[in-house]
Amino acid sequence: MPKRILEGLVVSDKGNKTIVVKVERTVLHPVLKKPVRVSKRYHAHDENNTYKAGEVARIIECAPKSKLKTWEVLPKDAA
């Protein structure tokens, strides 16, 4: 099964080797039948502390690295 790749905004880089990425997606509201933005925050492993808050990061699934971290960042030069 292929690993999922998500793209979102880095909202926190306070932890050492950890960033928090907010991923937004749109879903159709079940009653109102209008598009609604839904967001979720993912903790991702950033080995070299390269990402700062406000940047856009791409993350990929990985084996669990800690209680909350099951994602890691893709390098900035990888397109």
From TrEMBL:
GO terms for cellular component: cytosolic small ribosomal subunit. GO terms for molecular function: rRNA binding; structural constituent of ribosome. One of the primary rRNA binding proteins, it binds specifically to the 5'-end of 16S ribosomal RNA. Keywords: Ribonucleoprotein, Ribosomal protein, RNA-binding, rRNA-binding. Transmembrane segments: none annotated. HAMAP family: Ribosomal_uS17_B. This is Small ribosomal subunit protein uS17. Part of the 30S ribosomal subunit. Belongs to the universal ribosomal protein uS17 family. Coiled coil: none annotated. It comes from Asticcacaulis excentricus (strain ATCC 15261 / DSM 4724 / KCTC 12464 / NCIMB 9791 / VKM B-1370 / CB 48). One of its GO terms (biological process) is translation.
